Amino acid sequence: MNKRRLLGQHMLMDTDILKTVLDCAELNKDDVVYEVGTGNGVLTAQLCKNAGKVISCEVDKKLLEMAQKTLGKYSNLILINGDGFKLNYDFKVFVSNLPYSQSKSAIEWLATKNFDRAVIMVQKEFAEKILAVQKSNYRAVSALAQYCFDIKQITNVSKNSFYPRPKVDSVLLKLVRKQKVDKNVIKALKLLFSYKGRKVRSVMKKFKIDKNLNLGEKRVEKLSPEEAIGLAKVVAQERLLQTI
User: Fold this and answer.
1) What DSSP assignment string belongs to 145-198?
2) Which of 64, 174, 222, 231 is deepest in the core (most CB within 10 A)?
3) Above pLDDT 70, what percent of the chain?
4) Which CATH number applies to 3-177: 3.20.20.80, 3.30.460.80, 3.50.30.30, 3.40.50.150?
5) Is 39 helix (H, G, I), strand (E, B) or coil?
6) Domain residue spans in the chain?
C-alpha cells in the first residue's frame, strides 16, 4: 500500500481550491502561519509568499527532504519533521489539508490554542459531524467545535482534487476562534457523551456530583454546545477535586 495512504495523506492538486484556501486565510505579512502536513509543498510555498512567517510540520522524512529542496529559497519558512500536534509553537493562522485520521484530534488540539483563524480541509462526513446541531450525528466534537469556533463551510471539494485520490469527498472549512477550553474539559465532555441516551440527572448521580444545574431532565445529546461545555467544566472540576 502507498505510504501516503497509510499516513492518511492526500496531496491537494487543484489550483482553484488552492486559491480558495489562500483567499479564506486572508494572510498578510504580520501573520505567523502554522501548517500541519507540508506534503508536496505547493500550499506551503503560497503561504510563504503571503505570510510573514510559516512553520510547517511533516511527519514523513522523505517528503520533508523533498520540501527542503523545493522550498529552501523561502527565508520566512521553518520546516520541521514531526507530529505538528505534539509541538508547541505560537501562531495566528492555522492552515492544513488534514489527514483524515487526525481530524478529530486536530479540532480538540485547536480548541486548547490561542489563535485567530484556521482554514482546514476535512472529510465530508466529519464536516457534517462538527456542524451537526442535536441530530443523530451530534457528538462531543460537535459541541466542542461549535462552542470554541465560528464555523463556516466554504466549499465542497471533490476527491478528484487530490493525489492519491481518496475514497470520499472533502469540505473546506474556516474556523474563527471564539474561546478555548483546557484538556480536562475536553476529557470530561467526551466522558459525558459516552452516556448518550441518558438523562443528565442520572449521569451526575453516577459521577457522585450533587449540583442543581437545571439540566437534570435533558438527555446528554440534547444539550446545546454551551450547556454541554458548562456541564463538562463542572464534571472536570468535581472529578479533579475527588482525586485530591
Assistant:
1) HHHHEEEEEEEEE-GGGEESPPSS-EEEEEEEE-----HHHHHHHHHHHTTTTS
2) 231
3) 94
4) 3.40.50.150
5) coil
6) 3-177, 183-243
